[in-house]
């Protein structure tokens, strides 16, 4: 059996690690299959994929990124037929084609001719015109659809006859959870992990920290871990904002790391103050796997991850005042959330462990291989739905 897996990235951020995990599931399910992985360029993702793939091929992909739209809509159109032709040839030779994310336009166009052997895994919530384009392209492709959250499913609003299936991303168990380690006798350790971008809300976090009275701010140690995607100016702007707010002693900035485990082991609380919709929120799930309760924005798929007031906390997106208020409560009253680490770990085990995700993904792949459409009216292979956030 020949399987082709297509990914738009080359680093080791959340979507990249999710792709690796899916390829691992495919390899474990079909150990004798020939698995080709298609990437747009070499990068850190290659090393872990070399252990799983038969071949790793670097090819030009027609990726719909916001910043590239002017170029793609003009001279870039000249390269689209070649890219689609390359995808058609590869699909014709494959029994199953897995396209990770809806932004790989050439493969979705080609999927129109091979709709019964292709599945697209959507884990982005685009905005405006980009959303319109990706939604239309996904529908037109006719291939099976896997969503990583109900928020993503709603954003794409597929035809009811092709509702797709929601399969939450599975996270590998990091082992024994930390448990409650903060008693108020040292600074509260906050971790913000992820790409530096307008979406992730690093600026909101800096604003919240800067607004705290000195007595509270001095009891907090924040690590911001991550780098900007080919955008050094954005990193400089963040560093300048930290300095201007006189937070250099309270905030430690560290570059991207492919293995964030040491940071999770260090942290008491994870912070995901996203300004724009996250399709799910891998960092929040990873934190819960370690027994770390997260503070997240009430936007996109994040409310599906965190049960507010039980396993973590929801705050309005972009509301630095509300975020500062939550941080103050965490610092001054640790006894109030003493049970949250255990509850966070329990929710991870029940909903987001890799076994549940693997079962759901394999069920979708088998439907494609059997010539059926992906789209059973369940959210997971087991049909288990997460408890909704309390109010």
TrEMBL record:
Start and end residues of each Glycosyl transferase family domain: 187-338
Pfam families found in the cross-reference section: Glycos_transf_1
Entry superkingdom: Bacteria
Listed GO MF terms: glycosyltransferase activity
Gene3D superfamilies: Glycogen Phosphorylase B (3.40.50.2000)
InterPro entries found in the cross-reference section: Glyco_trans_1 (IPR001296)
Tagged with keyword Signal: no
Keywords: Glycosyltransferase, Transferase
Protein name: Glycosyl transferase family 1
């Amino acid at each position: 059996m020949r399987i082709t897996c297509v990914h738009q990235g080359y680093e080791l951020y959340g979507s990249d690690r999710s792709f690796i995990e899916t390829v691992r599931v495919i390899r474990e399910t079909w150990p004798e299959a020939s698995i080709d992985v298609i990437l747009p360029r070499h990068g850190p993702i290659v090393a872990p994929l070399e252990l799983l793939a038969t071949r790793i091929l670097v090819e030009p992909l027609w990726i719909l990124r916001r910043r590239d739209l002017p170029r793609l809509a003009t001279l870039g159109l000249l390269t689209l037929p070649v890219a689609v032709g390359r995808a058609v040839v590869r699909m014709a030779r494959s029994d199953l084609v897995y396209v990770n994310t809806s932004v790989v336009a050439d493969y979705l166009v080609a999927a129109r001719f091979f709709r019964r052997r292709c599945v697209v895994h959507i884990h982005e919530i685009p905005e405006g015109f980009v959303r319109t384009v990706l939604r239309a392209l996904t529908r037109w492709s006719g291939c099976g659809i896997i969503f990583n959250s109900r928020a993503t499913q709603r954003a794409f609003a597929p035809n009811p006859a092709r509702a797709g299936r929601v399969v939450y991303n599975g996270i590998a168990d990091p082992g024994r959870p930390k448990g409650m380690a903060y008693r108020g006798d040292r600074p509260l350790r906050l971790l913000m992990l992820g790409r530096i971008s307008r979406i992730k809300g690093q600026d909101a976090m800096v604003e919240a920290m800067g607004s705290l009275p000195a007595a509270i701010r001095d009891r907090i140690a924040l690590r911001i871990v991550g780098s900007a995607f080919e955008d050094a100016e954005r990193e400089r702007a963040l560093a300048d904002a930290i300095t201007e707010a006189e937070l250099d002693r309270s905030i430690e900035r560290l570059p991207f790391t492919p293995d964030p485990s040491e940071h999770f082991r260090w942290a008491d609380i994870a912070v995901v103050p996203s300004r724009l919709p996250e399709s799910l929120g891998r960092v929040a799930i990873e934190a819960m796997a370690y027994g770390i309760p997260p503070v997240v924005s009430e936007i996109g798929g994040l409310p599906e991850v965190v049960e507010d007031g039980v396993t973590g906390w929801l705050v309005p997106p972009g509301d630095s005042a509300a975020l500062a208020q939550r941080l103050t409560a965490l610092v001054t009253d640790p006894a109030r959330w003493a049970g949250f680490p255990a509850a966070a770990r329990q929710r991870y085990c029940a909903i987001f462990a890799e076994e549940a995700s693997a079962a759901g993904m394999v069920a979708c792949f088998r439907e494609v291989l059997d010539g059926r459409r992906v789209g059973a009216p369940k959210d997971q292979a087991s049909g288990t739905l997460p408890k909704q956030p309390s109010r």
